[in-house]
Amino acid sequence: MSKIRGYIAIILLSFITINLWLLSKDNVSLIINLPMTSLSQIFALIGIVLMAVSLLLSTRIRIVEDIFGGLDKVYRVHHLIGVVAFIMLVNHPLLLVVQSLPDYKLALNYMIPGPDTSYNFGVFAQYFMILPFIFILLIKIPYNLWRYTHKLLGISFLFASLHAINISSDVSVYMPLRYWILFFIGIGLFSGIYTLIFYKNFGPRKIYVVKKTEQLLDIINIYLKPVGKKMNFISGQFAYFRFTKSKVSKEPHPFSFSGAPSEEDARISVKILGDYTMSAREISEGDVVAVYGPYGRFGEIYNDPVKKKLIWIAGGIGVTPFLSMLRQESVNSLGHEINFFYSF
Length: 344
Prior knowledge:
- It is found in: Membrane.
- The chain is of the alpha+beta class.
- It has helices at 2-23, 29-33, 35-57, 62-68, 71-100, 104-109, 117-137, 143-150, 152-166, 170-173, 175-202, 275-278, 300-303, 320-331; strands at residues 205-216, 219-226, 238-243, 253-256, 266-271, 288-295, 309-315, 337-343.
- It is built from 14 helices and 8 strands.
- A hairpin with a 2-residue loop joins strand 1 and strand 2 (219-226).
- It is elongated, with a radius of gyration of 24 Å.
């Protein structure tokens, strides 16, 4: 239900945007006579709103997780509306090009930089938006480098915002639409700044040190001792771990807790598989770890005290949240009837 509520909110925002755009028109015939231009304007306005919402969803703010019912679901929606916003914003100038033909000189104004600064902001927004997708779709690069290309979308949003508020358009003359777009520009800029600068130091975090590690085949169990208060999580949740004193990438990486919440030390289990996890073998005793979270709603059904029949199905390293629940069950059974199917 919470996920549907989130989708309804996004559809409602798009609906309000379209209606404000319609109210900005003095004459409906303008929409009919210039259909490509009209569709281009709608794409641009909804695209900016959706891009701002997408940036907000990437902040990991607790209220956003509550609305969608878990951070994993938040990121699915973040990806979906990010793709929709990309399609709309890329087609914004393309539709204007089609409308302007056969005037090729006018068409080029929408594609390459020229003397008009407000137009150039839009052109630069397109360039910085398309570049990350080239890396995502065509070029395979390590995760730590991919993250930097993903941040180019924030620069794209900045240029798109400057374009929207400076160009002569409905946004510049119809104040309700202008304030609406400015509101979402503010949300997008706040979200980008918070994610890139402030989350690392002011996000929900606890500090741990690595107590010990143990490797079993291609799985590394990492035991973490809290420095001060430990993180309060429920079994089935995950967090982002940033190892600050080892050769592991400094970028926070998500892992499910494989230990029980009641245990003094936290435990995560890492499978050596990709670029990041290959370096997990470099983690050693005494390394400092910043743990951000907890996140996720996966264990809510298990942690509900009402007794019920549960069927668990897991494969490979996906067993980690179930291990957390099983270890908690061994300490403080909730009385559920659990049937567990596992394949490795």
